[in-house]
Design a protein that fits this description.
By secondary structure, the protein is mostly helical. About 0% of the residues are buried.
């Protein structure tokens, strides 16, 4: 029973090691990730900020001119 357990454990450990080694060999040939999603998120965030600032400024101006007519 003990030898069967150790055999199972050794096979499992070797399989994990083998899988890691094979994946490390394959990973070097993987295509690099695209930056397009990241750039599109940055662009969307930038323009959201621009629109938010414009709306905030317009609301501030309207409130100012209501309080200070003329």
């Amino acid at each position: 029973m003990a030898s069967r357990f150790w055999r199972w454990y050794a096979d499992r450990e070797f399989y994990k090691w083998e899988k890691t080694v094979l994946w490390d060999m394959i990973e070097t040939y993987r295509r690099p990730r695209s930056f397009a999603p990241l750039i599109s998120i940055y662009v969307a965030a930038f323009y959201t900020g621009v629109v938010g600032a414009a709306v905030t400024e317009q609301l501030y101006k309207e409130k100012y001119w209501e309080e200070h007519p003329g």
